[in-house]
Amino acid sequence: PNGRAETIRVTTWNLEPATVAGTSGAGPDTNEIRIQEAAATLKKLNPDVILLQQVRDWEMCGQLAQALKPADYSISVCSSFREARTGTVSKQQVAILSRAKAYFSWSEAWQTQGETALPGGLAFAALQIGQQRVGFFSVLAETASVEARAAGQRAAIGQLLEQVGSVRNWVANQVHVYVVAGTFDTGAQDTSLRLLQQAGFGDAFLETPAAERVTVAGKPGQPGATADYIFTQPGGCATNPRILSMADSGHYPVTCELELDQEDALTLDQRRHGRAGRTDNLET
Fold it and tell me: Which pLDDT tens digit goes with each residue over 152-211?
């Protein structure tokens, strides 16, 4: 590699529109305006990887990618979760768009806990960026009821960490850096943060004052809340965290840079290949 490190910009954004009094839903014109406004904001942020929550479907992701031209983004993955009660395709999906092509991707809905079906789920994409391979998880982990918050978050984070462990066990094309980003239930954040921190993930906004960590605007007379996060493993690779407040968005876009150490990636690959070679020699 020509340099010791490479920097990529990551944005996570829950595209839930701001509540508008007297409206019953988003029609075609509203969706088009929503896409164009989101594209205008993302062009200013200029991320390399975009993790989305509450997108309608693959078609909406394609329309957003088209609206981002001349920047060249591809859809790495878009979920197709179904409503637990009706079996119809949900309008609240998760997705990942990226300038780099994904070499592996999938999505998974949260598993049913007892009689409670948790809405949302996760989408994963593995990307080769320079010498580094980065695994991205776009997460929508809002529980359905107040009573289910703590248990729901524990179940969702447990399932997420199982997926992280599955990727970590890859023999080929092993991931060097993990990014978990998205929306977490505001009533059970202590549970989510503790479990992710225990698993070795660092909060990109750990040193940001609470007053500057608002990602959801408050209702009249009420303060805003923090519902959207970026976590990384290793924890020290996220820099320059920032949140862009927007009056017409239910959630705000959250952005940071990742400092990817190319030499560390090469060293890690060499160690892994060395272990694999020793195993092959023993088998021979």
Answer: 778 889 999 999 999 999 999 999 999 999 998 776 567 788 899 999 999 999 999 988
Total Cβ atoms within 10 A of residue 70:
5
- Condensed to tens digits (0 to 9), the pLDDT of residues 48-80 reads 999 999 999 999 999 999 999 999 999 999 999
* Verdict on whether the full-model pTM lies above 0.70: yes
How many other C-beta atoms lie within 10 A of the C-beta of residue 4?
10
Do the Cβ atoms of 123 and 81 come closer than 8 Å? no
Using alpha carbons, select from 118, 103, 132 the residue that is nearest to residue 260: 132
DSSP lists the bridge partners of residue 113 as 116
- Cis amide leading into 220 (omega within 30): no
Structure-token match 């959630």, residue found: 251
What lies within 8 Å, CB to CB, of 145 at 6+ separation is 116
Work out the end-to-end distance of the chain between its first and last CA atoms, rounded to an integer number of angstroms: 34
DSSP per residue, the chain = --SSEEEEEEEEEE-PBPP-TT--S--HHHHHHHHHHHHHHHHHH--SEEEEEEE--HHHHHHHHHHTTTS--EEEEE---B-TTT-PBPS-EEEEEESSPEEEEEEEEPPPBTTB----EEEEEEEEETTEEEEEEEEEE--SSSTTHHHHHHHHHHHHHHHHHHHHT-SSS--SEEEEEEEE-TTSHHHHHHHHHHTT-EETTTTS-GGG---BPPPTTS--B--EEEEEESGGGEEEEEE---TTBSB--EEEEEEEEHHHHHHHHHHHHHHHHHHHHHH-
- In our burial notation (b when 16+ CB lie closer than 10 A, e otherwise), range 130-164 reads bbbbbbbbbbbbbbeeeebbbbbbbbbbebbbebb
